[in-house]
Amino acid sequence: MTSPLKPAQVKPKSKLANQTLDDIVYCHIFDAILEQRLPPNTKLNEEVLSDIFDVSRTMVRRALLRLSLEQVVVIRPNRGAIVAAPTVEEAKQIFKAREIMELAITELAVEHATAEQIKQVRQLVADELNAFEKGDFGSGIRLSGEFHLQLAVMANNTPLFNFQRSLVSQTSLLIAQYEVGNHINCSLDEHTGLLDAIEAGDKDKALSLMQEHLNHIRSKLNLDGEPVSKDLHVVFSSFNNKHTGKAKSNKG
């Protein structure tokens, strides 16, 4: 079975020429969830999003439906959509699924990863470190999630990649909802160690390091944490500023 996955598909911020309007809205919301700029329980008002992205509510609705299928958005009949807020029990289930998925992906990545893929992911880890060093925690968190999506690309298994995409974004919600303390990048050396083991073809070591990495992520969660809420205009302010700048430029 040949996988259609390309590295660019791992990064929602990399917009493709043939993307539709709902693709663009979907990518921006997905990024905002990965970067934890959209916390659990945030109301995703169709009218507000339509105004922010300058698209029809139909396009927004399509994007939200796609996100609901990935279980990171909940569409409530007659009450609109919100960012999912997993319960403690759901959090446990998500982590169990993530554990099974990550170990399967790691095993396949050891078998199928190419030298070029290893090189690309090392650059991604370097970008992750740079983001955290600059205090750009949102980008650092997103890049950390993309690291795990890149491992799924290495595994060369399309169904696993699709499942992983949903689980990574759901885990980001759990971290936003339940993580203790400030965002601190504790996973960089773990990511590098994982890459080293995959590149060396050491399956046992790679699986052991992945298990330790997942345990580390889970250990930072306080399941008594409370979600917060943010204004959609603030979350997507960078898009609005860029869009407004273009409009003014065109008028000039």
UniProtKB/TrEMBL annotation:
One Pfam family per UniProt: GntR
SUPFAM superfamilies cross-referenced by the UniProt entry: GntR ligand-binding domain-like, Winged helix' DNA-binding domain
Listed SMART domains: FCD, HTH_GNTR
Top-level taxon in the UniProt lineage: Bacteria
Keywords annotated in UniProt: DNA-binding, Transcription, Transcription regulation
MF-aspect GO terms: DNA binding; DNA-binding transcription factor activity
Matching PROSITE patterns: HTH_GNTR
Record domain HTH gntR-type: where: 19-86
PANTHER family cross-referenced by the UniProt entry: HTH-TYPE TRANSCRIPTIONAL REPRESSOR NANR, TRANSCRIPTIONAL REGULATOR, GNTR FAMILY
Protein name (record): Transcriptional regulator, GntR family
